[in-house]
Write the structure tokens for this entry.
Amino acid sequence: MTTISASDVNKLRTMTGAGMMDCKKALQESNGDFEAAVDFLRKKGAKISANRADRDAKEGAIIAKVNQNKTTGVILQLSCETDFVAKNEDFVAFAHKLADIALANNAADADSLKALSMDGTSVGDKIIEQVGKIGEKIDVVKYEIMNGTNLVPYIHAGNRIGVLVSLNNPANEANFMGGKDVAMQIAALNPVALDKGDVDATIIERELAIGMDQARAEGKPENMLEKIAQGKLGKFYKDSTLLNQEFVKDSSKTIAQMLDSIEKGLTVTAFKRISL
């Protein structure tokens, strides 16, 4: 019998989306011939997965959840090909179940999640089963996990955006509502960073360059360009960093001021956002 290596098994799994044991069996039955192995898997029920491997799956459902203590949270996107499937109750329920499994097991990433057990088999194999049942390419394409003192989840726009917000103070009803308002703002305005010091240096360089070019195009003196660009950068921070954004429900306050008014010292320590 032909010796089947782990890399061969992984290659066939990548090609077809079938389970590891199924791929190993297929390669053994076909003496290592990949084309024959794919045919074997198709005959065994993996046909749809193999056929749809190159299809675009730009729709889906995003789920955000936290554990009972609000100390761990996950967001994942289960993708599919059509809006019709994305809105299907069974598909959304399956996405929720994946999030529950990820949360219960502290799955570090999507691959770790797919390796976990689900109803007597792996999550990865259950996803392949769903491909066969639904007839569309399905996969966990985005996944984030967060740990903190007080996490608030939020799902927006019919499972099209998911947000996790980490607050610094222990959970209570008042700061939960504040955290939810912050999560809604993150969903709507998509800030690039938490605060000024968290903005990537390349973004700052780009904003300064744009500001100088704009000022130059307006005919401003060369010796004033950098100062003008710094002023525009300040506006960028106000518009694009969460704690400095105006609170959408009360523009007289920033997000930082709104949180402090709910509970002295309350602030956001981190956030995650996933969108279709």
Notes: Residues 59-147 form a domain with the Tetrahydropterin Synthase; Chain A fold (CATH 3.30.479.20).
